[in-house]
Write a structure and sequence with these properties.
heterodimer, A: alpha/beta, 11 helices, 41% helix, 9% strand, B: alpha/beta, Rossmann fold
Chain lengths: 332, 326
């Protein structure tokens, strides 16, 4: 199931040319941003922990591009892709990662706590699983307000082993709130392969005992992610209860920039590179006649230009005012 | 005008009045609203009043999410020690959200927890563990000692735009006292002088206020005038009222049910030592629980905890008084 045969273009089902182009552009923006982030981190322009999602872009793109600004997304520590796909401005995002005043959180949050309320991006937590129930509370609020405003939360397969995951799934089901729980199962929890954590094969296997509908898709096939999430989102917008969507994927980088990655010896990156979600979409698009490789190269070039503009913007932003701790520790 | 009600009824009155005043106030927790006859459920309905499973972590997390989305949840957590199950949610999630989002998000949420059931409930239900939360940035901590303060602090807690930890003391739940009629809000960060005096300052928190007032009364019979100050909230903490009292009395004794090294008393002692040292005519004295678990057995439980006798002894030592004849 995980990706099908290498080189399989996948179904491409549910997409049309315009949607496919938007997904292509979104994935390239994430890829180009994160590839640029790595040297920025190594030169200490970007601070702290930098968790890259290179190879996982299809999940962020397939999910977030379908959401309205008033439909909140809660993310996890690997948040850059989710943020960009949800509409966070690239320059403001990078300024945040550089700890600058014009960052979307004025440099107070950093890469694990990017928040942009205007685009419905409610940030992340540095504690695995810690914000799973936030999305349930948000979806509950939407229901109480009588709005068709479901919430989405991204989590990794590592979070599925936490107690808060079970508590959250149970309450989401008990109260039947419209929340879509999107698992990016990349096979690694931090530095440890899934096989060392659990005998449960699929995260979606955990949904049935709580009577939560679930699906597992190839998370490197953006068409599959898009179609499966469209289904889950339609149910949620119609007022159904929770849905768990598991996307099998693979990060082509370490847990964070600088992670020596020795534990990944058993992983065949080459096989996964053949399942690169961008290249797969390009093959699907060629087969369907939506666009050709030239269009992909143009999207890549535009994305890399946008990244350089973001770098220029962020690097010229000042550091934040030292009065912020006194101003913002408490809401007034 | 006022009415006389128990401490627990005062808290419930505040929650009910705030739920009447503001549709956004939600109320949920374990073991509540399980019967259709539950007064909150009858008045406010199952959307706003909910029983939860034993899932403290998710309860607080869901409250956080609902608060971010505009609601004002009150989460009933029963035992303060149950907060420890959900420590990440109490300390490290909702409390950080406003700051880390540069103020884009706020989390108006109240967590209600009972503490100090020192009536043979042994090691895990008797702790006065509020001290470990008073240094958490973004979190406010209320610690009422009277029915009036219990109502007024709960009203303020629900209206506050930050996460508030509201500690109710189990042994005070049935204590009756006068509560002002109508709307009653006690501001956070404003200490109350529970008894005025001129010879020595006693600062006590939560349940220990009762202990301190008892000691002050017996000392008054010996002609010793003790001022008793209740900070009422320990985050924010009104240090100024304490400093100005100490400036007049020159003597400070701190009474706290918490273990000495996790007590509010230790923090107040540090503040006064730094900011009010020149006022002091004697060393600051701390009358706290021992740094020990609370014992099940009554004599050992009493040995570990502060009491009036221990407070009186500390006051005598601070003022250089001869012990009262037994």
């Amino acid at each position: 199931m995980a990706g099908g045969a290498a080189g399989d273009p996948g179904s491409g089902g549910g997409l049309d040319a315009a949607v496919a182009e938007r997904l292509l552009e979104t994935m390239w923006r994430i890829r180009a941003f994160e590839e640029r982030l790595e040297p920025l981190k190594r030169s200490s322009m970007v601070l702290g922990l930098t968790h890259l999602s290179i190879g996982q872009e299809a999940v962020a793109a397939g999910v977030c591009t379908q959401l309205r600004d008033d439909e909140p997304v809660y993310s996890n520590h690997r948040a850059n892709g989710h943020a960009l796909a949800k509409g966070v401005d690239m320059g403001r995002l990078l300024a945040e990662l550089m700890g600058r005043a014009e960052g979307c959180c004025r440099g107070l949050g950093g890469s694990m706590h990017v928040v942009d309320v205007a685009h419905g991006f409610l940030g992340a937590t540095g504690v695995v699983g810690g914000n799973l129930p936030f999305a349930v509370g948000s979806a509950l609020a939407g229901r109480l307000l009588g709005q068709d405003r479901p919430a989405v939360v991204f989590f990794g397969d590592g979070a599925a082993q936490t107690g808060i995951f079970a508590e959250t799934l149970n309450l989401a089901s008990l109260w039947q709130v419209p929340v879509v729980l999107v698992c990016e199962n990349n096979g690694f929890a931090e530095f440890t392969p899934r096989s060392a954590h659990t005998r449960v094969e699929r995260v979606s296997d955990l949904a049935a005992p709580f009577r939560v509908p679930a699906a597992t898709v190839d998370g490197n096939d953006v068409a599959q992610v898009h179609a499966a999430f469209a289904h889950a989102l339609a149910l949620a917008r119609a007022g159904s209860g929770p849905f768990l969507l598991e996307c099998l994927t693979h990060r082509l980088s370490g847990h964070y920039v600088g992670d020596p990655g020795g534990y990944r010896a058993a992983v065949e990156d080459e096989a996964w590179r053949a399942r690169d979600p961008i290249e797969r979409l390009v093959r699907q698009a060629a087969a369907a006649g939506w666009f050709d490789a030239e269009r992909s190269r143009a999207a890549e070039a535009a994305a890399r230009d946008e990244v350089e503009a973001a770098v220029a913007f962020a690097a010229s932003s000042p550091f934040p005012d030292l009065g912020l701790p006194a101003e913002l520790t408490y809401a007034r | 005008m006022s009415h006389v009600i128990p401490y627990i009824a005062a808290i419930q009155e505040a929650i009910r009045e705030e739920m009447e005043r503001d549709d956004r106030v939600l109320y949920f927790g374990q073991n509540m609203a399980t019967s259709p006859e539950d007064p909150f459920l009858k008045q406010f309905g199952p959307d706003r009043v909910r029983v939860t499973p034993i899932s403290e972590t998710a309860e607080i997390g869901i409250a956080t999410g609902a608060a971010v989305a505009g609601y004002r949840p009150v989460v009933e957590l029963y035992m303060a020690e149950f907060l420890l199950v959900a420590t990440d949610q109490v300390v490290n999630e909702g409390t950080r959200f406003h700051f880390m989002s540069k103020g884009q998000v706020s989390v108006p949420m109240v967590m209600v927890a009972g503490y100090g059931f020192t009536a043979g409930w042994a090691g895990q239900h008797t702790g006065s563990i509020y001290g470990m939360f008073m240094g958490v940035p973004g979190l406010k901590v209320a610690l009422p000692s009277t029915p009036a303060d219990a109502k007024g602090l709960m009203t303020t807690a629900i209206r506050d735009d930050n996460p508030v930890l509201f500690f109710q003391n189990y042994l005070l739940l049935l204590d009756e006292g006068e509560v002002p009629d109508g709307e009653h809000a006690v501001p956070f960060g404003v200490a109350d002088v529970k008894r005025a005096g001129s010879d020595l300052t006693l600062v006590a928190t939560g349940y220990a206020v009762r202990t301190a007032l008892g000691a002050a009364e017996s000392l008054a019979r010996r002609g010793v005038s003790v001022e008793v100050i209740d900070p009422r909230t320990i985050a924010p903490l009104d240090v100024d009222t304490i400093l100005s009292s100490v400036a007049r009395t020159g003597h400070l004794v701190l009474v706290d049910q918490a273990t000495r090294h996790s007590s509010v008393a230790a923090v107040i002692a540090a503040e006064v030592a730094e900011l009010g040292f020149s006022s002091l005519e004697a060393p600051i004295s701390l009358v706290t629980a021992l740094d020990s678990s609370i014992a099940y057995s009554k004599p050992v439980e009493e040995f570990v905890l502060p009491d009036e006798h221990k407070v009186v002894k500390a006051v005598e030592e601070s003022l250089g008084l001869a012990p009262a004849s037994a």
